[in-house]
Structures are given as structure tokens and as C-alpha cells.
Specification:
The complex is a heterodimer of chains A (495) and B (462). Chain A is of the alpha/beta class and 495 residues long. Chain A is built from 15 helices and twelve strands. The model of chain A has no long low-confidence stretch (mean pLDDT 96). Chain B is an alpha/beta fold and 462 residues long. The longest helix of chain B has 37 residues. The radius of gyration of chain B is 26 Å and the shape is globular. Classes of the chains: A alpha/beta (495), B alpha/beta (462).
Chain lengths: 495, 462
């Protein structure tokens, strides 16, 4: 390494094959208690449905399993190891009391169909979290049923459709800015709306003139991320809402970046009609290597009749229960009530913060992003000089002169002990470096990050090949993704 | 705030470095009239001990310490201790989707193993890295069949989990996918004659569950033959995956959409769970969700990457196979560890115990109530019909800290006073005997004093 990094050093880690390669007949990691009922003749009970063989399922001991997964875990980067500045993903600290709360017996083992009389604890959690999220967003009602952000988008657009339908015309299309997450257009398609692109202006914001020109009675809603994916607050938000509302359209807010607003501004106050939240972003539930998430959808009063069933209500005797009798509902979007375990974690997070903690959290997230912007401005090209909220987007324009692209810089960052930022998104910035530090980073960690990014920029000038070949310090070097896609090997098979 | 790693002096210094005087300037882009100038109306910061107390209190109000006979798509099985030890490792818990393969090999290799084991257990050739849950996996499986066949209508078995049917209806409504429902016969299985009648040249697929909602094992081979004869695909939903240890998987299916909660995932009042879709290799490009593939690095070393991303929303946007982004990765890891712990022999023995407990319970219940669909093979659930309303029976059981079977009136009014009971390896003989005794008592009281309804019967189950 040309420039020494203070963040990380190389360390030996263990090799580990696939679990199937460790398997041999007769090893076992399980033990069942003796059966307290008569044995059964499975052939007699199941007839031709009886299964004889479980193929290549592994046979291994408990210590081997512990080592297997522990060894593999050490090959992962994680928030627990350091800054994870993936823009748009909000990789903040995942508090451990959240995990403890979710594992308390009656919460972990509650059955979704147990009688309401003995489900008051879970219902109380759902109701409390719902009320607090309504207060945080400034909306009027909420459903916690959607299992993730994209699922929330679908639920939100189904309610948009139902709302318009109730007025006699479901309308035809959804406007989506060119800076939007890919889930937005994919969701619109699933709800059978056509997608119409809306271009951004030179500030990286919605082009108001274009919006006014494109808005008509065919438009069901605009899906807007605010702050948007450039980390820029849509300053004309109320004009945007007014343009939509004047023609009967609705404003849908993708709440992926709600962590820039909590305690500082409420979407319900600036004209938003429907929005989803990502509990796994703003409200600290762990990403877990890709999930589970939770995507509550908050709405204004006019959309309340369309909420998915069931809805938690207070009954006449003061106890809580589920209301299934909602004739205008869009229906169910998931069995049971959603990712309840994530509700528990999000509520524990809100409790630990309180109003002052949530506000400070937002302020720190925005402060951190601006600190990084200041630290790297000049070293990397800043395509939009509009003020930054919780994340900042640079481009690889300066480094491209040496043939180095955002992905190369990202891979080199790994050698410096950091997880890369988000590469090549948003699409409106060619060669984007999208950096979101979150509030969880100390000054020291961010200084190391800035130092690493500057050092890489120097390497690009002096020795671009080192950057192009990165990473150099990982178990595997860059992997052949083309062959992986061309000749997919999606499972292990015995030799 | 204890999660924030900055002192007031740090914040001051940072502001200075940026060239700002106050934090308020950072929020200047938000028009002043929309800036919140008051505290959010939520409770004050709580100490960790207070938070733990709060949830312990909720736990006590939530069926803690009750013995339950509920299944119906959510099953209470033993969870080996090492599942939580391993998934609590920060490297799994606090990592993102493994887009940066070089520093995500742990997650990637474990998903590759997950995909392999799901294939082994289902008899399919490829499996994805997870979907939200069984209900949405079923809906996505159907949409996949619609894309593959170019046909739009769907025949759904009435013996499919009723909430799965509701979810499918929600997904299908606006996509122009007409649904028709085929009923079940006296044997608790899909009525094949009705199925034949329901299939049209426009039928993209038939969706059934096996073991079905009543615990009965469907004749998948026969159903597949009927579907395929008409050029339709067969999508099979599996809600109780422990059955795969002893019940032949639906190998004749084209797509399997399952809920893997039974493999080591806590009941958690309904989620997070773990949906999975498995299918034939030739259909993989129409499969939704993430996939991990094996490849090599520049030095030829084996490694794993997310692959076939051109199906997905971040590449294809409105032309993607699905809008799914976040899935259930950590839950899939629980499932993965569970499958590894029990493995080839343990899964079979585990399934056998479920079978034995259920066979015993059904035989005991049959002495006092009517166990429906008894001639047909079942796994770990069965339907008991009684003279008394199952809500009343359950009210009686609750007094003994027991939760009886799920009353089916809401979903299947045609079955009258019926409830769906479930036994797993964790159901003890003494619990079964107590429950059977209480049901018997209920039945006797109804028969002797069918007119007197002095007991205050609450609606204790939904």
C-alpha cells in the first residue's frame, strides 16, 4: 500500500469450505427427547407420500457448525467494525437492547392467532409504535403490515389507486423523478400504473416547470424521495404538492431518507399524502445482510378507509383488538400483521432516544454528511452544489481522467478498512459516489475516512493501477461476475 | 444520547470546520414554515433498564407461559441455542446486502448453502435467497407463472391458507389476473373435478398448498398432471417445512413458494418470517428476488456473488420481475443454521416426532369430537368438529393456560363448529391429554344441557 492507513491492519482469517464438504454419515448436532406417545408406522400413515431420503443434506457436529458460521462471519464487513457509508442505505448503529426486547419470551413466542385477550402486549406495541410514527411523520393514520420499503411502496400505491377509484377514475400513471430508487418504477408497474419520468433541474431538484407541464388528470401521484437521493431537500416541496393537488393528484413520499427529517420537519406538514418508512434505515433495526426490513405506510385522513386489513382498534371495553371489517380496504398485503419483531426494535429505539435524542440524531447525521462534504470537496467533483442534508454525492469526473471509476475507488476503500459508499447511483450523476455517514460516526472515524479518500485520490494520480486492481487485502480479489451470470452455478452439487 | 459518539465540543469544532455558526444553518434548506419548532410528542428518553421492563411487561400480557395448539401457517418448534449465538454476530447482524462481494463472502457463502439445501429439500433445481414470507412468495410465484406462460388467470385451491389467498387477491386485482377458487372434497383435498372445470386455456397456473391449510397432504402428482395437460403451471405453497423431513416434496411442481418459519424462526406474533421460491433451472430468469452464484476471482479462487441482477429493480426499474429489494436475509440465516443442525437424519426424525404426536392427538380427539378428513394422509395439523362452539371451548382452555385449535368459522363457515389443531415435537402427551379432557368435558356439558347457556362465553379467538 502506497499510503499507510491508520484504520486497519491485515489479519489472518480462517479458510472454510462449504458445509457439504465437511459432512459425513453419522455426525449429528441434534438430539430429540424420547417420544412420549406411541411410535407410528410412517409408511402406513403416509403411504406413497412418505419421503425416504433427504439427498445431500449435511451431517455435521455442533462445534463444526459454530466454527463454520463464525469463520464465514469474519469475512464480512459490518457496522460493528466501522463506518459503512452506503448512501441511501442508512447504515447506522443497531442498538442491542432492541435485540434483547425482541427476544423476551412472550414477544418472541407469541402466536399470531392467539386470542386477542392474551395478545394485549403485542397489540399495545403495534398501537404505541403506530401513534409515535404518526407523530413523527405528521400524518393521520398508518399501517405497519408491509414487510419492507418496496412492499410499503406497493401498499401505498394500492391505496392511491383505491382513493382515485373511489372518485370514479383510477388514473393511469405515476410521475417519478430521474433520481429515484429503482423500486419506485418497479412498484408502479406492479400496481399497473405507467411510469413517466420527471427530469431534475440544475439544482438536482424537481423541475417545477416540467412538473407543471406533465401534470394532468391522468397522473395518480408523484413518487418523491425527500430529501432526494442527492441528499438535497426539495425546497419547492409545497409548490410541488400544490401542482399535484390542483389536478387531483397525490404526493407520495419515499421515506428512505426520513432520517434527515425526524424531529426537524414532518412530511404531513409539507403536503405529503402517502409515505412509507424503512424501519431498517431510520429506526435502527438491523439490515442483517439484506433483511428483514419493515415498511410502514403513513397516510392522510382521506386515504384511511383503504388501509390494509386488519387494523388495530380500541374496543368498547378498552382492550385492543383487530378490525377486519373494512369494506374499502385494499386488502391484505401479507399474512398476519407484518414484521412484528421489527416493530419491537423500532419502538425500543424511539424509547431510547426520546424527542431530544431523535432530534440530536438527525442533526448529527446532517452535520456528519456536511463534514465529509467539506473534507472531500476539491478532491472529488461535486456535481451539485445545493446544500447537503444527510448524504452527499460526488462524482468520479476528476479520477476518470486517469481511467479510474467510482467502483475502482470503492474497491480501493476496502483496503483502507472501510466499506465502500454507494456506487453509480443516483443515475443522474454519471460515476456517482454516494456517501452517507449517518449519525453513528465519530469525528475520528470520519477523519480516517476523509484521509483514506484523499489518499486514494493521490494514488489515482501517482499509481492508478493500484486502484484499478483493488482490493488487495481481501480473501478474494474482484470476482468474475460476467461468468457468474452467463453460466449460473446457483447451488452446490456433489463432485 | 448514548448512541451518539460526539461531545458538544466535537459538534462545535465540526461546525467551525464547515464554516457554520449553528446547527440551524444546516437545516436552512427546509423552508422555515415547515421546520418543527417544538419537541415531538413522544415519551422522554428511557434508560435501558426501563426499556427492558417495558417489553417484559408487554410479554406478560402476551400469552407468556401458555401451552398452544395453534399452527395455521406459524409453527412452534424448538430453536437450537446456537441459532441466536451465531446470528447475533455483528458481522451477520449489521451487514448490508452483499453487493460488495470481496467483503461479504460470509453472507454470500451462507446464502449459497441455503439455496442448495432448499433445493435438496424441495427437489427443485434453483432457490432464491428469500422472499418476505410464505404469503407474498405465493403471490410472486403466481406472477412468475403468469410471465412464463403469457396467460393471466389463476386457479387457487380453497385449501390454501386463507390469508395467503387474500394476499394473492390483493396482488392480482390490479394486474388483470382473474382468480377462481377450486373447493375441497370430503377428504380435505382439492376437489380434482372442480379443478378440471376451473381450468381454461387462459389459466397460467394452479396454486395449491401441501400439506394444505387443514394439514392434509395433497395429491400433487395428480394435480400437476391436470394442470400440465391444459398447459398451465403448478405452483405449490408449503407453509410447514418440517413436513419435508418425512413427506415427499412436490417434485411435480413447476414453482414452489414456501414459508420456512418452522426452521428455527421464532413465532414473533407473525413475523419476520422467511419466504422462499424454488423452481426449475430453465425458469430462473423469471424468478424474483436475489440469487447468489459461484464464480472465481482473478487468481481462480472460489468465491460467491449476487448474480442475474438484470431481473431486479435496481437495474431494470419498471421492467423488473418484482419490486423486491430488501428480503429476509438474517431470517434465512436462522433457517440455514437450523437445516444444518438437523441435517439429513435429524430433519427426518424431527418430522417423525411431529407425525407421531399428531397421530396420537388426533386419535384421542376422535373419541370425543369428529376429526375431519381422517382417511387422508396428514402431517401435523387436523380439523376437529365439535358440538360446542370452538370459541367457547377455547375460553375454557384459556382458564387452564392453554390455547386450543384455531376456530375456522371466520375462514370456512361451511365446516361449522370446527377448529384447526396443531401438534409439534414440543407438544407433550400430558398437554394433549389435558386438552382432550377439556374438550370432552365441553362436549358433555353441551350434550347434557344444550339449552342452558349460563356460561359467559367470550370471543377469545379470531
Amino acid at each position: 500500500m502506497k499510503h499507510e492507513t491508520r484504520k486497519a491492519s491485515l489479519q489472518v482469517n480462517q479458510n472454510e469450505g462449504l458445509i457439504f464438504e465437511k459432512s459425513s454419515a453419522g455426525k449429528a448436532a441434534w438430539k430429540l427427547p424420547p417420544l412420549d406417545v406411541p411410535e407410528v408406522d410412517t409408511a402406513a400413515l403416509l403411504g406413497t407420500s412418505e419421503r425416504k431420503d433427504l439427498g445431500n443434506m449435511p451431517e455435521v457436529s455442533e462445534i463444526e457448525i459454530i466454527r463454520h458460521f463464525t469463520r464465514m462471519s469474519t469475512w464480512n464487513y459490518a457496522i460493528d467494525l466501522g463506518m459503512y457509508p452506503l448512501g441511501s442505505c442508512t447504515m447506522k448503529y443497531n442498538p442491542r437492547v432492541n435485540e434483547a426486547a425482541a427476544r423476551v419470551e412472550g414477544i418472541a413466542n407469541g402466536h399470531p392467532y392467539q386470542p386477542e385477550k392474551i395478545s394485549q402486549g403485542a397489540l399495545h406495541i403495534i398501537k404505541t409504535l403506530s401513534e409515535q410514527l404518526i407523530e413523527i411523520t405528521g400524518m393521520d393514520a398508518i399501517t405497519l403490515q408491509p414487510a419492507a420499503g418496496a412492499h410499503g411502496e406497493m401498499t401505498g400505491l394500492l391505496m392511491v389507486r383505491a382513493y382515485h377509484q373511489s372518485k370514479g377514475n383510477a388514473r393511469k400513471k405515476i410521475l417519478i423523478p430521474d433520481s429515484a430508487h429503482g423500486t419506485n418504477p418497479a412498484t408502479a408497474a406492479m400496481v399497473n400504473y405507467a411510469v413517466e419520468n420527471l427530469k431534475s433541474d440544475s439544482r438536482g431538484m424537481v423541475d417545477i416547470a416540467a412538473l407543471a407541464a406533465q401534470m394532468n388528470e391522468d397522473v395518480a401521484a408523484l413518487m418523491l424521495t425527500n430529501p432526494n437521493t442527492l441528499g438535497v431537500f426539495e425546497q419547492d416541496i409545497h409548490k410541488i404538492a400544490d401542482i399535484l393537488h390542483a389536478k387531483g393528484g397525490l404526493l407520495y413520499m419515499d421515506g428512505a431518507n426520513m432520517n434527515a427529517l425526524v424531529g426537524k420537519a414532518r412530511p404531513g406538514d409539507f403536503g405529503v399524502d402517502v409515505m412509507h418508512l424503512n424501519l431498517h434505515k431510520t429506526f435502527s433495526t438491523p439490515h442483517g445482510g439484506g433483511g428483514p426490513g419493515s415498511g410502514p405506510v403513513a397516510i392522510k385522513k382521506a386515504l384511511e378507509p383503504f388501509l390494509p386489513t386488519p387494523v388495530v382498534v380500541t374496543k368498547s371495553d378498552g382492550t385492543l383488538g383487530f378490525d377486519y371489517n373494512r369494506p374499502l380496504s385494499v386488502g391484505r398485503v401479507r399474512a398476519f400483521y407484518g414484521n412484528f419483531g421489527m416493530f419491537v426494535r423500532a419502538l425500543a429505539y424511539i424509547q431510547a432516544n426520546g424527542p431530544d435524542g431523535l432530534r440530536q440524531t438527525t442533526e448529527d447525521a446532517v452535520l456528519n454528511a456536511n463534514y465529509i462534504r467539506k473534507g472531500l470537496e476539491g478532491t472529488y467533483d461535486l456535481p451539485y452544489s445545493t446544500p447537503t442534508m444527510h448524504e452527499v454525492v460526488f462524482s468520479d469526473k476528476l479520477q476518470l481522467k486517469k481511467g479510474v471509476r467510482t467502483m475502482d475507488i470503492a474497491k480501493r476503500l476496502i483496503d483502507y478498512g472501510f466499506h465502500p459508499y454507494t456506487t453509480a447511483f443516483p443515475l443522474i450523476v454519471p460515476g456517482a459516489l454516494m456517501i452517507e455517514p449517518t449519525e453513528s460516526e465519530s469525528v475520528e472515524e470520519m477523519d480516517l475516512f476523509i484521509e483514506a479518500m484523499k489518499s486514494i485520490a493521490e494514488e489515482v494520480e501517482e499509481d492508478p493501477q493500484t486502484v484499478l486492481d483493488a482490493p488487495h487485502s481481501t480473501r478474494v480479489s474482484r470476482l468474475d461476475e460476467t461468468t457468474a451470470a452467463r453460466k449460473p452455478v446457483l447451488r452446490w452439487k456433489p463432485a | 444520547m448514548r448512541y451518539l459518539p460526539k461531545s458538544p465540543a466535537d459538534r462545535e469544532a465540526m461546525l467551525k470546520a464547515i464554516g457554520l455558526r449553528s446547527v440551524d444553518e444546516l437545516f436552512a434548506p427546509i423552508p422555515a414554515e415547515y421546520r418543527l419548532t417544538r419537541d415531538l410528542k413522544i415519551p422522554r428518553q428511557m434508560a435501558e433498564s426501563e426499556i427492558v421492563d417495558f417489553f417484559r411487561q408487554r410479554s406478560r400480557e402476551n400469552g407468556e407461559g401458555y401451552t398452544s395448539f395453534l399452527g395455521a401457517g406459524a409453527y412452534f418448534h424448538y430453536r437450537p441455542v446456537i441459532i441466536d449465538s451465531l446470528i447475533s454476530r455483528g458481522e451477520f447482524l449489521t451487514a448490508y446486502t452483499p453487493y460488495q462481494a470481496e467483503i461479504s463472502q460470509g453472507t454470500l457463502q451462507s446464502i449459497f448453502e441455503f439455496q442448495t439445501m432448499i433445493c435438496e429439500l424441495t427437489g427443485m433445481e434453483v432457490a432464491n435467497a428469500s422472499m418476505y414470507d410464505g404469503s407474498t412468495a405465493a403471490a410472486e410465484g403466481v406472477m412468475m407463472a403468469v410471465r412464463l406462460t403469457g396467460r393471466r388467470s389463476v386457479v387457487v385451491a380453497r385449501s390454501l391458507h386463507p390469508e395467503y389467498r387474500e394476499v394473492l387477491a390483493t396482488y392480482a386485482t390490479h394486474q388483470g389476473m382473474p382468480l377462481s377458487v377450486a373447493g375441497f372434497g370430503g377428504d380435505g383435498r382439492l376437489n380434482l373435478k372442480e379443478l378440471e372445470r376451473s381450468i381454461t386455456p387462459e389459466t397460467a397456473c394452479v396454486l395449491v398448498q401441501s400439506p394444505n391449510f387443514f394439514g392434509t397432504i395433497e395429491d400433487v402428482a395428480e394435480i400437476a398432471e391436470i394442470a400440465h395437460k391444459h398447459g398451465a403451471m403448478l405452483v405449490v405453497s408449503i407453509a410447514e417445512v418440517v413436513s419435508l423431513g418425512i413427506v415427499e416434496p412436490p417434485r411435480e411442481a413447476d414453482i414452489i413458494a414456501m414459508e420456512a418459519q418452522s426452521f428455527g424462526v421464532p413465532l414473533g406474533f407473525g413475523g419476520p418470517y422467511c419466504g422462499v421460491i424454488a423452481t426449475r433451472e430453465k425458469y430462473v430468469r423469471q424468478m424474483p428476488g436475489r440469487l447468489v452464484g459461484q464464480t472465481v476471482d482473478k487468481q481462480g479462487r472460489r468465491g460467491f456473488v449476487l448474480t442475474l441482477a438484470t431481473r431486479e429493480q435496481h437495474i431494470r426499474r419498471e421492467k423488473a420481475t418484482s419490486n423486491i429489494c430488501t428480503n429476509q436475509a438474517l431470517v434465512a440465516l436462522m433457517v440455514n443454521i437450523f437445516m444444518t443442525v438437523y441435517g439429513k437424519v435429524g430433519l427426518k426424525e424431527l418430522a417423525k416426532q411431529n407425525l407421531a404426536k399428531t397421530a396420537y392427538a388426533a386419535s384421542q380427539f376422535a373419541k370425543h369430537g369428529k376429526v375431519l378428513f381422517s382417511g387422508t394422509p396428514r402431517f401435523n395439523e387436523f380439523v376437529v368438529q365439535t358440538s360446542e362452539d370452538p370459541y367457547a371451548i377455547n375460553s375454557r382452555l384459556l382458564g387452564h393456560k392453554m390455547v386450543g385449535g384455531l376456530p375456522l368459522k371466520r375462514f370456512y363457515p361451511e365446516l361449522g363448529n370446527a377448529a384447526l389443531w396443531c401438534c409439534t415435537e414440543l407438544t407433550t402427551r400430558s398437554a394433549i391429554d389435558t386438552a382432550v379432557g377439556l374438550v370432552a368435558e365441553s362436549e358433555r356439558s353441551v350434550r347434557t344441557s344444550s339449552s342452558s347457556k349460563e356460561e359467559d362465553v367470550e370471543e377469545v379467538a379470531r
